[in-house]
Amino acid sequence: MVDDIRAEEIADKVYNLYNGYTSGKEQQTAYNTLMEISPPMLYRVQHHYNSHYEKFGDFVWRSEDELGPSSAVADSTLRGVGAAEGSRNTSFDRRAQERMRVALPHCVKAMKAHLILRRVERISRYCGALLRSAYIQSRTDTVPYIFCRREDMLPSSSVWHSSLQDMQVSCTEKLMSVPRNTYGDSKLR
To answer: 94-121 pLDDT, tens per residue?
Structure first.
């Protein structure tokens, strides 16, 4: 079940968080939101983000550019630290450690982005095609079902050996609400 209106709201929230001044706390809130929603909902958030803004994966790299080095800089920093381990120059080691301290949070952000995007990759092609529909409408259908129970209660210690014909059963028809989505290329009524 996908709430299309909420998916669009989340896409807008993520865009606004990552395209203005944002604190680490706000970015963590956006990350938590994206990790808490179901993969189909995340896929729909990605659809709205891509249709209104840029590519979905860009929001993480944008935030890294605002706060510090990109993954390429972090990667070269990590290689520099590895080279520094072999040298005995302590001032170089301190500089390498400082670069590592600065680059590490950005590497963590890249890993978080990877975790989010991997959840979207797990969706089947069929579900992905449905979730890319122009319009998704949520609705609740009422489905009848029959609930039956035995009228003559047996003690819990007794073994059940009787047949269905020997039992007194009462059945009642009940209704159950089932949420579902309707998918289409044009607005549904």
So the answer is: 665 555 555 555 555 556 666 777 777 7
* pTM for the predicted model, two decimal places: 0.54
Is 71:108 a contact under the CB 8 Å cutoff?
no
Strand 169-184 and strand 135-150: pairing?
Answer: antiparallel
In the DSSP assignment, the letter for residue 139 is E
Residue 56 CA to residue 45 CA, distance in Å, equals 9
CA 168 to each of CA 50, 150, 159, 163: distance values in angstroms, whole numbers, following the listed order? 60, 6, 17, 11
Instruction: Extract the tokens encoding 104.
Output: 């590490």
**What does 76-133 look like in DSSP terms, one character per residue?**
HHHHHHHHHHH---HHHHHHHHHHHHHHHHHHHHHHHHHHHHHHHHTS-HHHHHHHTS
Kindly indicate the confidence band of residue 15, based on its pLDDT and cuts at 50, 70 and 90: confident
d(CA 33, CA 27): 10
Strand, helix or coil at 21?
coil
| Angle, helix 58-67 to helix 4-18, in steps of 10 degrees | 20
State the first-to-last Cα distance of the chain, in angstroms, to the nearest integer: 18
DSSP state of 3: -
